[in-house]
Amino acid sequence: MLWWPTLWAALLGHWVSHCYQLDSEDKATIVELHNRFRSHVLPTATNMRKMSWMDSLETTAAEYITKCVWDHNPNRGDTGENLFVGTGPFNLTKAVTGWYLEHQDYTYHNDSCEDNKLCGHYTQVVWADTYFVGCASHLCEEVEGLSFTMATMLVCNYSPQGNYEGEWPYEEGESCSKCPEEAPLCENNLCVAETPEASETPPVSEGTTKSPQPGPDTPTPSSSGPDTEHTTMGTDQTITTSEGEQPLSDTSSPPPDSEEEEEEPMNEGGKATLSSILLAATALLLFL
Ligand SMILES: *[C@@H]1O[C@H](CO)[C@@H](O)[C@H](O)[C@H]1NC(C)=O
Ligand SMILES: *[C@@H]1O[C@H](CO)[C@@H](O)[C@H](O)[C@H]1NC(C)=O
């Protein structure tokens, strides 16, 4: 009879974690938010491409996220990566918007970030040449590298990757005035292709139209050093981190870029939900 509780726990664990996976509506939200932010950059962009979902990037993120590690995926290939983790109720819009809100610390004219702030998530979100995104979310009982329990992680991978050292995320000027040949049309200030991008096909131009520029070891101004802020506020914590600051040097261990945002203190939603379900399951078990 001992295996019954185990089976129940396994099934429930599966069901609960399934609830934290992105559905098609979530994916549409992610793409829509990225494109909304990209179409509203200031100063305006001459060459900002419209972003689409790519299933293979989602697969990369989905395979990695179940490891529940607070660090960048060493096997993500040449994709950019933004991470988020938070306890309490997961709000996808808030997580993605948090990346964008780093624009408040970013100055376009000198391509730099305020001291002790992160801007790398923002610059990846609005990187003009990045036009594919794919993400996964997961409820982690524990997160390696953090003291969080029952935390939701969100990983987004980007292609072609952004955040090249010494490059601006986009070119300033009249919207759509320098759209690339393969995306010549203009829609909401974004450069779009004449036929929709096939989301299964990797971008053909990757690595061919331009050679990656940066010296591998020079960090961007936005993310140099271990700019770690890790103060604990209440029970709910969210942290985001971005990769791509050093796209060419992902063999070195990424800096512990982490940033904390305060959230309204709430009880640990994920945990509460899980325990009440387990309680209900136990009750059912006893009844049987
Ligand atoms: C999620 O966050 C967004 C942006 O902060 C907010 O407008 C929205 O109401 C939140 N949704 C829920 C369900 O809390
Ligand atoms: C970039 O410009 C902003 C605003 O003018 C300024 O506050 C900041 O110190 C500058 N950063 C660098 C690294 O020059």
From TrEMBL:
Keywords: Signal. Residues 231-244 have a biased composition (Polar residues). Residues 257-266 have a biased composition (Acidic residues). The keyword Cytoplasm does not apply. Residues 25-166 form the SCP domain. SMART domains: SCP. It holds the Pfam family CAP. Residues 196-272 are annotated as: Disordered. This is SCP domain-containing protein. It comes from Megalops atlanticus (Tarpon).
